[in-house]
Amino acid sequence: MVIRSSSSTRIDQSPREMFQRSNSSSSSPPKVGGSLLKPWKKSSESLSDSKKHSTKGSSSTHHMSPLRNESHNGSKTHLHHNHITHHPTKDKYFKDLDEDWSAVIDDYNMPIPMISNGGVETTLRPPAVIHDESAFESQRSSMESYRGTGSNLNRTISNDLKLKYQIEVEKDVQELNSLMVRIDRFKNLTRPKDGTTQVNLTEIRKLAWNGIPMVHRPVVWKLLIGYLPSNLKRQDQVLKRKRLEFKQGVDHIFSDNHEKDVTTWHQIEIDIPRTNPHIPLYQFQSVHDSLKRILYFWAIRHPTSGYVQGINDLVTPFFQVFLSEYLSPSTKDDVYTLDPLTYLTAEQLSDVEADCFWCLSKLLEQITDYFIHGQPGILKQVKNLSQLVKRIDSDLFSHFDSEHVEFLQFSVRWMNCLLMREFHMSMVIRMWDTYLSETSLETSIGSEDLMSEGSTSLDRKSRSSASGPPSSDSRQTTLSEFHVFVCAAFLVKWSDELMKMDFQGIITFLQNPPTKSWKESDIEMLLSEAYVWQSLYKDATSHWR
Amino acid sequence: MSRKKNILKVIILGDSGVGKTSLMHRYVNDKYSQQYKATIGADFLTKEVVVNDDKVATMQVWDTAGQERFQSLGVAFYRGADCCVLVYDVTNAKSFDNVKSWRDEFLVHANVASPETFPFVILANKVDVEESKKVVSSRSAQELAKSLGNVPLFFTSAKDSINVQDAFEEIARSALQQSQSDADAYEDDLNEAINIQLDGEPSSCGC
C-alpha cells in the first residue's frame, strides 16, 4: 500500500471519504440509509462522459440517470463510465465536492443515479474509516471558496493553481492519515487489546472489502478464508497442526510408498514454468519446487477435480502474499524479485507452502464445480454472465449477437482464472482483498471454528448472523456470484469501444484488454461497479445459487 | 464467391505443451517466446493471407487449451472451422498417440458436412531438439498421416521457425478450398429448395 499522489488515486478516495464523513459522528458500525449509491454516484460523475451517453442513444438528456432501470418490457440499464483520466479538470473539481448533491446537478447537469428505482439495499458494505475531521473541514472550506460563485470562476489561473496545489497537499495529508488509521484498525481487529479472544470477522470483512494494508494482508487473508481460526487462542495451535499435516502429506506423496499419478504430474510440470512467466519470482527453482508440491498434493487430495490448468495461477497470489510476511515492511515489494530461500529457511518455506495449500483448498472449495469433469461451474457462470449483460447492456448484447460473438469465446478464461490473466499481479492481489471478503460463510467460519470447544448449534447460528458478509441481507452472496458481476462490469466498461467493432475486433480486443496501466483505483472502481450491479440485480439472480 | 469476404477459420488442437500457441504466434507474428502462459479457453489471432497468388482472405486462428479437462468447453470453438490443425510434440509419445483422438473428437463435435473430405493438417513440432530426445519417428508419423486419409504432414519448429510458414500456407489452401466447397454446397441447398418448391407446385395446383 503506497501513498500516491496521482489524481486518479485520489478520485477513488472520494467514495471512501464519503463514507468517512457519513460515519464520522458515530462510532457504531456503518449503517447509512440510502448512501450506497453515493460513493458510486460521485465517482461515476467524475467518470461519466455525457457525450458518450447521448451518442450511445441510451440517454438522450443529461437529466437521465446513467443507471436506468426500466420495467421489464425493454428492461435496460446502463452504467457508463470512462476512464478517470479523460476529464482531469472535472475530476479535480468533483473529487473534492462536499455532500451537497443537488448542487452538483444544478451546476453541471451531470447524470445522477436514481436511488429510488433500483431496489437498492440501504445496507452499507464499504466500511467507514475514522475520519480526520479537521483535515476534512479545511479541505471543505477551501473547496467552497474554490467552487464559489460565477464570478469567482474568473479568477486568475495562478490563484487556481495555488488552490489546486493546496488541495493536493491537503489530500495527501488526508490520505496518509487515512492509511495510518486503516493500518491501526486492522491491527486492533486482528490483535484486539481489550482481552477478547475472538476477532470480529464481520468488521474485518467490512474493512477488508475496501483493501487491506500490505502489512496485514497475510493474516487477514487467512482469517477471511477461514484458514486461521477467529479464536485467537487457537490460532497458533491450528497453524502448527495444519502445517505439520501438510508436511507429512507431502513427504508421503513424494516417497516411494506413493505411486505417482503420471498424467497429473506431467501436467503440473509443464505448467509450472509457464506460471507468471513475467514475474522473476516464478523463475526460481525453489519456487517451482514449492508450487509443484502444493499443486500436486492438492490434486491428489481432490481426485474428483484433480489438477486443472489455471489452478496454477490461482495459487500464486497466496504464495507471494504469504511470502511477504517474512519481509520487512519496507522491502515487501522485493517479493517479486527475490529467491525466497535468500530470506527463508527451508522450514519457513514449507510453512508458506502449507498456508498456500490450505488457503487454495478453501478458495477452490467455493468453486469446485469449475474444475470437475465437464466444468459445469464455468458453463453456468458464462451463461449467467451473458444473461446479466443482456439486462445491463442490451445494446452490447445484441451487438455481440449480430456479430456472432459468443460469451464462451472470451469468458472461459475469465471464469477459470477469476480474471487473473487480465490484470497485473498487484492488481489481482488488491482484487482478492475484496474477493476473499466475499468468501461464503460456510467456508470462512470453517470446520475449525465450528468444532471449537463448547460450540453449540446455537453458537453457530448466532455466529453466522454476526459474521455475515458486509452486505448481510436475506441471503448470502458468494464469491462466485460476485465474480460474475465483476466480469459484467469489466465487459460493459468497454461497451462503447466494442459497439464499434466487428467479430474479429471484439474477440481480439477481449483477448488482450487494455488493462496494463490499470491502477489500484481502477480495480476498486470495477469492484464498486460490480457491487452496485449486484445490489440492483440480486433478486434477479437469486436462482443462480 | 457467395461470401462478401473470405474468412478462413482454423482451429489448432493437440495435447498440452506441444507448442500450439507458439506455432500460432510464429506464423502470425513471426515471434517466439518462452513466456507463454498455458492457454485457457482459447486464444485468437488473425492474419491476412493470399492464397494461390490471387485470393485474399483473413485467417482466424483459434488456439485451444490442451488439457483434456477443457474438451467440453473447447467444443464451442470447433463449429464452423474450415481446417483443423493437429499438433504433437516429437519428444512426447503420448501427444503423438493422441493425434487420432483429437481428430475424432473434432469430427464428433464440429458437425462438419462431410467428415471424409474435411481438411486436417498434422504438425510434428519441436524438431529443433537434439535427436536423442525425439521419441516419435518420422516414419510412424507418415504412416499415421496416411492412415488418416493422406493428411498433409509437416515437421516444424516454432522456436527455430522451421516449416511453419509452409505449413500454414497449406492450411490456408485447404481451408479456402473447404470454405468454397461449403459455400457451393450451401448454394446447391438453396437451388434444391427452390426446385422442390417448383416441382411441388403443379401437384398442389392439381388438388
Automatic annotation (TrEMBL), chain A:
Predominant cellular place of this UniProt entry's protein: Golgi
Biased composition annotated in UniProt, kind: Low complexity: 464-475
InterPro entries assigned to the protein according to its UniProt record, in alphabetical order: Rab-GAP-TBC_dom, Rab-GAP_TBC_sf
Transmembrane segments: none
One CC-aspect GO term: Golgi stack
Subcellular location: Golgi apparatus, Golgi stack
Alphabetized SUPFAM superfamilies for the sequence: Ypt/Rab-GAP domain of gyp1p
Chain spans, region Disordered: 1-90, 449-476
Record flagged with keyword Transmembrane helix: no
Record field: compositional bias (Basic residues): 75-87
Domain of life: Eukaryota
Compositional bias ranges of the Basic and acidic residues kind: 42-52
Residue span(s) of domain Rab-GAP TBC: 211-439
Comp. bias (Polar residues): 1-12
Molecular function terms, GO-annotated: GTPase activator activity
UniProt keyword list: GTPase activation
Protein name: WGS project CCBQ000000000 data, contig 00107
Originating species: Kluyveromyces dobzhanskii CBS 2104
UniProtKB/TrEMBL annotation, chain B:
Membrane-spanning segments: none
GTP-binding among keywords: yes
Highest taxon of the lineage: Eukaryota
GO biological process: regulation of vacuole fusion, non-autophagic
Gene Ontology MF terms in the entry: GTP binding; GTPase activity
InterPro entries: P-loop_NTPase (IPR027417), Small_GTP-bd (IPR005225), Small_GTPase (IPR001806)
GO annotations of cellular component type: fungal-type vacuole membrane; late endosome
One Pfam short name: Ras
Keywords: GTP-binding, Lipoprotein, Methylation, Nucleotide-binding, Prenylation
Family label: Belongs to the small GTPase superfamily. Rab family.
Identification of the protein by name: WGS project CCBQ000000000 data, contig 00098
Annotated source species: Kluyveromyces dobzhanskii CBS 2104
Lineage of the species this protein comes from: Eukaryota, Fungi, Dikarya, Ascomycota, Saccharomycotina
